[in-house]
Sequence to fold (769 residues):
Amino acid sequence: MPGNNLPAQLTSLIGREREIGELRQMLARSRLVTLTGAPGCGKTRLALAVATDAREAFPDGTFIVELGPLADSGLVPQTIATTFGVREGPDRPLMAALHEHLRLKLLLLVLDNCEHLLDACANFLEATLRACPTLSVLATSRELLEVNGELAFRVPSLTYPPEGTDHIYEYEAPRLFVDRAQLTLPAFKPTAEDWQAIGAICRHLDGIPLAVELAAAKVDVLSPVRILDHLSDRFRLLSGGRRRPGGRPQTLRAAIDWSYVLLAPAEQKLFRRLAVFGGSFTLEAAAAVATADEVGRADVLELVARLVKKSLVVAQSSDEQARYRLLETLSEYGREKLLAHGELSDVRNRHLQFFAEMAEAAFKEWRTEAHSSWLQRLVLDIENLRLALDWARSQDRSASVRLSGALAWFWWTSGRLLEGGKRLEESLQPPEGTDFDRARALDGACMIAYHHSDFLALETFAAEQVIVCERLGDRCGLASAMTALAEVALFKDHDAKAAEALLMKSLELSTTGGFLTQESEALTILGLIGFWRDDLESVPQPWERALRLSEQVSDVPQRIRMLADMTCLNLIRGRIIDAARSAAAALAAYRATPGHHSLEEMLLQCYAWLAVEAGDIERALQLEGASRASSRLSGYGEPPTWSRYWNPVLRKAMAAVPAEVVERALSEGVQLDIEQAFALAEALASPAPIADRRYVEIAGVKLTRRELEVAVMVAKGMSNRQIAARLVLTERTVEGHVENLLSKLHFHSRAAVAAWVVAQNELAVERPP
Ligand SMILES: Nc1ncnc2c1ncn2[C@@H]1O[C@H](COP(=O)(O)OP(=O)(O)O)[C@@H](O)[C@H]1O
Ligand SMILES: [Mg+2]
Fold:
């Protein structure tokens, strides 16, 4: 079955067979079908049913993106891209990356709840449908999107019986009523009188499913006849005695109002307070936010369960921690009530406080093994974090500085550099917050600017960080700021000398203060200076120490980064065995603590290079293809000179096989998802080609096959260049082999190697298989 992210439905679907059939035909005719209709009429539910039914027709998957909780229209493309794991990166416009990902995929995208973001959705779809000619979209919205070629489908209410009929069960709305009533009261078996009342209720409610659900949830306390009475009163109240025909929004409003009025006071309070959440929430969050007069912390579980039973809160199926949410319409209603009771600001303050505490706890551990579990938790609450940040920004500037500082790492390692950069900048301007909080936020802003290659911004942030940290006497922050300034010197001003001087200052601060994390960061940049100067010999020493330090303080993300960087270095220096070893370590570490997506691209390229070295060009090209696919996710470029070394190797590998093979292998690679790509890489590392380079022991010296070959070629008087051409390796790689030979044999010259080979004349010139 193709991939999908359609949520499992916990309640059964009633009717809609005809609509589903019609919509499937529409999807065959147009690539954009929009379901419109009043709130609660069943648009989302129907869209999900159609998408599930159509799965076979979309071999590349069916995906839903819930736009309801999204407040910022600028985030529409990003939110959709994230669903496909496509992330922004420096020099990689998000839309282009997303289009590349979706191009030629037979995929159905369900965009749910577009109504509050009509323009943003329309713009997105205009561009995307043009760029991706095989993509289909099913949108739900109260209004049409007005995009060229859009087919509209107005979602009707569920069918309900006319007055005076006995065949009530043949209609959809009464069946929905009974189905939901039995969820509340399993023993519920309607009598003939009940059936009549249920038919009348459904007529009253115009067959609007949400309204019917809310009414049915009352059968545990009221008989259908009593429910009908209550509803009739309520309608008379609202319409001043007259019932306007077709007044749908009013009907739903009345039904919602009625369910709300019937709640116990504590339930009402909880319900409206829950409306502050964006998207879904946990019980823990609900307790923290909603606990106040009359709602005790300990009652929250019980109260939430009651609201679920009354169809006012939806429980989401989940293997992990249970999460809950409010349907969009109900959430809007709840927010109105919150405002009317003058509670909005208190509740949003508690919401902010809860998520600020969560962010602080995450900040304490992001550099540890807990990294990925925090990442996952924060991603689930991303809408809540955004709401908290927005609220802080408008109400409490120092909280805003604190919160955005705590979250900087999250934007970076979850691949949301643009948003993170913007949020940090906003919180730092105008200058407010305590020095302590500003120092941390500036540190985070530097981290994001560096990885976004925005060296101008980096310079501004680092300069202020120096001032603030000096004022605070914060030597650790100062060390970090000095490293940032060194990055500016190196990458913006191309002044390696100045960069080195700054790093020395940073290192001095770190070593005297025992700031191991900062020391490791500075050493990383020190190594990069070696690349910059093309002095590769100077790189390993600082990097090995950086790696050891990261291990010493269990800085997991930094350790993975160093292992990946070391792999690049080993490859570039032709130390293939070491490269294979560090690649395996990096990959294992990454898989144990996934989430730092920005490293995927580089790791895959390292493996592609290893495959070239193993003579497995096809696999190399597949891995390169996979890396290109994942580069849409990241934009990591360290060392910045990596591609300078990798590209020629790649070109040469491509030239060694027919053009069709290149094309096929690359496109096969692009199709792989990240797990498949890693599996391909690992298969290379284990028994196959690399392990083929068995050691050969000659006169007590252990050589690899490759080294042996190189030795033989050296003995024939071939230059490194000639050897490289013959073996389809880079010259540097051959140099590395020669270096290894010299050190293993304890020789100092090629001539000595040649003599040794001649002496071992039993060495026939035998190419490995
Ligand atoms: N055909 C149906 N069968 C069962 N439940 C339905 C059906 N249509 C809607 N519902 C339920 O009614 C409620 C409102 O439907 P929803 O699709 O969220 O409406 P909308 O998206 O139009 O606001 C949801 O709880 C949904 O599960
Ligand atoms: Mg909906």
Remarks:
- The pocket of adenosine-5'-diphosphate (ligand 1) is lined by residues 11, 13-16, 37, 39-45, 140, 176, 209-210, 213, 327, 329 (CB under 6 Å).
- The domain at 265-342 is CATH 1.10.10.10 (Arc Repressor Mutant, subunit A).
- The chain has a mean pLDDT of 87.
